# Entry
Amino acid sequence: METPSVRLSCKLSVLSLAVHRLCRPTIDDTVPCPALAPFFWRKGGKAQPSTRPFVWFNLHFCFFLTLSFSAAPCLLLGQAPATPPPAWAQPGSATHTQVAPPADFHRPSKNFEAPIGIFDGQSDIGSAVVPGSASFDPSTGQYTINSAGYNVWYMRDEFRYLWKKMSGDVSLAADIAFPDPNGYGDRKAVLIIRQNLEDDSKEAIVALHGAGMIHLAQRPEKGIRVKDMEFRIGGRGRPGGESPDSLVTVTARRIGIEKHGDSFALFVSLEGEPMHQFGPPIQLYIDGPFYVGIGFCSHLPDKSDTAILSNVVLENSAGKVQ
# Structure
């Protein structure tokens, strides 16, 4: 990869060689270049460099600068090596099965306590190798979340999280859209209630996947593998099928999570109808205060993707998911 430092080092190298060529005495000690005549004096009819020690010092110094600038890009690149993610972090495919990370693998989260919209702050939970970002547009009520991350699953998570500290009962809901239709199918926009901001925190999750699956999940204790209940919804005779008998995926427009005591329930609106509970709730005890918020994970360890969450409702009581 060519950088400005590399281009400068090349120019210094050419300059150094050119000056060295011009300034080195010829075999018969004649002046090597008329332009350099003021720097030579004659003795016995022969040209002698009057400042030879000074000239050679500068040549060596120029050569040293050339080497320094040439090495600088390597040193800088060495500080942030482009190391491929480990095999366990790679997403599942026809030729690869994703597995859980090593039990002792963790990265500290990066937290930013600056308000964004209705939230108190945001975090890169688990510090994916590509930093995340988020923005809020007050005119549309849209939160745009960009994040890489191997997964929100197993014993630890990697995702961008916008959060608010709360206690008691909670209702949270959002419309969800994925701008890139070609993103990885298991990418997740999530509504999460977490005990803390560590990558292996106890948590309750509702998520909409890129391929349309919805789930209600929990990590029952810190560092424990996530367990869930999954819902894949489809219908026949709908637009997009090859024939009226084709099963076409139905992707929810809006999802929500309700915390009522130790009970956590998934709410869904498939096609704009009023939000309604979907499936049975789960039971999980979380100490207050805890973190409540929205997030996104590309499910690709070193490639960011984007989710847009809008019309976000967050209430400090149950029964307000809408």
Remarks:
- Residues 1-43, 50-81 have pLDDT under 50 and may be disordered.
- The CA atoms of residues 47 and 96 lie 74 Å apart.
- Helices lie at 4-23, 52-79.
- Residues 52-79 form the longest helix (28 residues).
